[in-house]
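USER: Note each token:
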Amino acid sequence: MTEDTLIPEVTAAPSPRERARIALSTARRRTLALADCLSDAELIAQHSSLMSPLVWDLAHIANQEDIWLVRRVGSRPAVRPDLDDLYDAFRHPRADRPALPLLDPVRARRYLAVTRDQALDVLAALPPGDGFVFGMVAQHEQQHDETMLATHQLRAGCPVLSAPAPPRASAAERLPREVLVPGGPFTMGTSTDPWALDNERPAHAVDVPAFWLDTVPVTNAAYEEFIADGGYDDPRWWTPGGWEHRRSAELAAPGFWFRDGGPAWLRRRFGQVEEVPADEPVLHVCWYEADAYARWAGRRLPTEAEWEKAARHDPATGESRRHPWGDTPPGPEHANLGQHHLQPAPAGSYPEGAAPCGARQLLGDVWEWTASDFQPYPGFAAHPYREYSEVFFGSSHKVLRGGSFGTDPVACRGTFRNWDRPIRRQIFCGFRTCRTAEEAR
């Protein structure tokens, strides 16, 4: 069975099996495109100690498919059982992976191809059902694709990726700075989405007081005001841990920003140097920077529950939507997702993707830091293994929501939870701020 035979012409909602087939094929095309544009030497190299060599990602993706689809779902012999330890992400920190006896690019691609052929045979013989494990594996590959894209951003050298610029926001439209999210209970999380991961479950009621939320993510222009006002030099705006990190890491601007003798800030984006666009959401800021900006602005970061209520709750029906605009799958008119562009769209874009509260760009463009630690929901049950979510719960990781321009729609929905350490900013992360309604001026 080959990839070319996978995708039928679909005029209605695909069956669970078709959905799984399409998701796997879409992820694999992206994985190979991110690898095939580089030489073998660049695939083997470690472009940052924060990231794996890209060739490790290739074989790790294959190994997860080998374990979960070939063996566990298909009950078939392992393709390469000898590789399980080598590509176990919990056994080998990223910084140590270049020293491992990794498969070379040719063998890694071969492992990907052989494993995929067997996985597709397993899928073809699968009884009708929700296909959760196939969805989990497709989402896993897309998550690694976004990590590979972040490695491309960290890579030095000539540009190898290209994409059209995102659509421009309407200059004639004047949006309010903030929108009101009414107080009251809403349903957070899900118990019905067949491909939702364990940390998104179960659905539960949360009472969220009224609050005002930024209509759009904080822009580069707004963040420049924070820099110009000495925000990086004033400990009043930083938590003690944030101030310590700012000093030790010598933070003075978002990641990849620099000046070259002139007054304008420049940035490096996938190998190109350009002036920082004033109207784009700020990108590559860590949680500490986002929190400091919010304090400087007299505001705060939204909690995870506040963010999800703004993105999903429909006051007219009392229901929680799958996406801000409704339950229909994301289209190019709704959000900047799927690596169709290599940068955020200008703030205020995608009016058709607005939430009921009026906020825009809650999905796509930039992952948004929230104030919340990554914790389990009431009634959480690890599935299908503890290491997906449970081992990360606690105060050492902050929640991000909404996805970025590098997130595929299969791994982006109103309930999807991402998490990372508060010092991380190599990911495509930004933020928006809020204030409680009692603070109305």
DSSP finds nine helices and 14 strands in the chain. The domain at 178-219+283-439 is CATH 3.90.1580.10 (paralog of FGE (formylglycine-generating enzyme)).
